[in-house]
Amino acid sequence: MKRRRAILIVPIALAAVLVGCGVSQPTPLQKVTTGASNRPGTAKPNNSLLENPHVSQLTFFTEMNMLNSTTGFISGYYNNKFSMWITSDGGLHWRLHEIPGVPTHNVRSGAPPIMYFQSKNIGWIAWITRDKKQNVLTVLRTINGGRQWTKHTQEAPTVANYIEQIDFSSHDDGWIRAFSGGAMNQGDTPSCVRAMAGSQYQGKYNQVLTYHTTDSGKTWNTGTPLPLGKQNSTVLLGLRHEYPSGTKLTVELYPMDENDQFGRERLGGVSAWTNWEGDTIHLVVYPANETIHFLKSTVVHEYNHHYRIATLNNGHADVPLLEKIIREGLAEHFVGDVLGANFHGPWVDALSEDAAKALWETLYSVHAADIGEQTDALVFGGQNTDVPLWAGYSVGYYLVKWYRQLHPVVSVIDLTTKQCKEFIPNFRDS
Q1: Which of 3, 92, 285, 365 is 20 to 30 A off residue 75, Cα-Cα?
Q2: In this predicted model, what pLDDT tens digit does every residue of 79-109 receive, in sequence order?
Q3: Any idea what DSSP says for residue 87?
Q4: What is the dihedral of CA 330, 331, 333, 338, to 10 degrees?
């Protein structure tokens, strides 16, 4: 279900700059390739647009949604009106469509609408408007490529201020992610997908709210607000302050499919990973109150990965099996030291200490230097492997535990910066 926004280079010049937390303050359109509305244009600048400052100030792109190498959509404002550009030939030609019923852009506007197309014909646009009495969610849906739109409106909770993402896992099953709170203090705009971990929020609330539809968007049910900013952003900001990595960190949040039984039951409603470069933490969260406990421990766990990769400068995929399991072991020890043992993940108890020792001596030590995706089976274990689920995590946890027993005065953050080979045990001397 994950979908990233990206501004791609096509034969027209897109002047939206991706910095920090996704899309920066909307950059005025510099060049545009369109003919009259609904007619293809040619791939050359529109000089009259470039020379008109009033037009350029009110024309900008917000998102790009490429379905494949030839078909895609751009959304944004053209002459103060919300519009979309469609290409079916890889960006050689674009058709401009103004979308009726969408608020115009002005200095008092809230966040711009979010657009998402699942196919060349089926798409949605959503936004939240605010007045003194209530917030209102509006969703437009098209089944003919944007020629006609049906409109749905419903009252939105006051904690929902703007839409961050639309995603559909099938034609009928879809999600909208809304966010509350004020603007960030680093020039962020409500339209950006990512929340910079080091940013301070302004406003009374910082909550993620999801809307779920099972009928293609005709009706939407509201999920339980997830107070990410109020509790877990505080944890993350505290880590950034106490254990600064000196590098940028981005956090991306996605809703967990309610049918993800493994994620909800075995992972506590939180799935996460840190990219190989170590600069982005991805969180997939099922929005429920009971998720908060697991989300907090997951944030701390993943931050340790970020810190280690940044400190050792080993942000690449070609790391040996030993480094992979040591990363997981260190992250869980970090969770225990920062939050307490009751926040440990289920992988800590996946193996007994004797079983972990036996697996290390007979299997993991033999493959410790192996590199490549084939080592993932030994990290995760479980189905279609010869080792228990999360065996690599558990072996890594015990490797770090055995090292700490021999070096009790070394702090967990100092352990995090040690090379993985230092954790290889010598049971003959113990």
Answers
A1: 285
A2: 888 899 999 999 899 999 889 888 876 544 5
A3: E
A4: 140
Q: How far apart are CA 191 and CA 27, in angstroms?
A: 13
Amino acid letter at 263?
A: G
- Tell me how far the alpha carbon of residue 395 is from its chain's centroid: 29
Going by pLDDT thresholds of 50, 70 and 90, the confidence category of residue 238 is confident
Q: State the DSSP code for 294.
A: H
Sign of CA dihedral 404, 409, 412, 415: negative
pLDDT digits (tens, 9 = 90+) for 27-74: 333 333 332 333 333 333 333 333 333 444 467 788 888 999 999 999
The C-alpha atoms of residue 380 and residue 389 are separated, in whole angstroms, by 6
Question: How many C-beta neighbours within 10 Å does residue 313 have?
Answer: 9
**SS3 (DSSP) at 15:** coil
DSSP string, 18-68: B-SSSB-SPPPP------STTS---SS--HHHHT-HHHHHT-EEEEEEE-S
- Cβ atoms of 53 and 66 closer than 8 Å: no
Residue 219 DSSP label: S
Instruction: Give the whole-angstrom CA distance, residue 4 versus residue 310.
Output: 23
Q: Tokens 């929020």 correspond to what residue?
A: 201
Whether residue 214 contacts residue 190, with contact meaning beta carbons closer than 8 Å, is answered with: no
CA angle 424, 427, 429 (to 5 degrees): 110
Which tens digit of pLDDT belongs to each residue from 308-337? 999 999 988 899 999 999 999 999 999 999
| pLDDT for res 252 | 87
Which of 352, 357, 347, 353 has its CA nearest to residue 389? 347
85 CB burial (10 A radius; 0-12, 13-18, 19+): buried
Tokens 């440990």 correspond to: 344
Report the pLDDT value the prediction gives residue 129, as an integer from 0 to 100.
82
CA distance 153 to 298: 35
DSSP 260: -
In angstroms, rounded to a whole number, what is the distance separating the alpha carbons of residues 359 and 351?
10
Copy the structure tokens of residue 1: 């279900």
Sorted by sequence, the CB contacts under 8 Å of residue 399 that are 6+ apart come out as: 325, 326, 329, 360, 423, 424, 425
β partners of residue 167: 175
Cβ pair 306, 243 in contact under 8 A: no
Give 411: exposed, middle or buried? Use CB within 10 Å, 0-12, 13-18, 19+: exposed
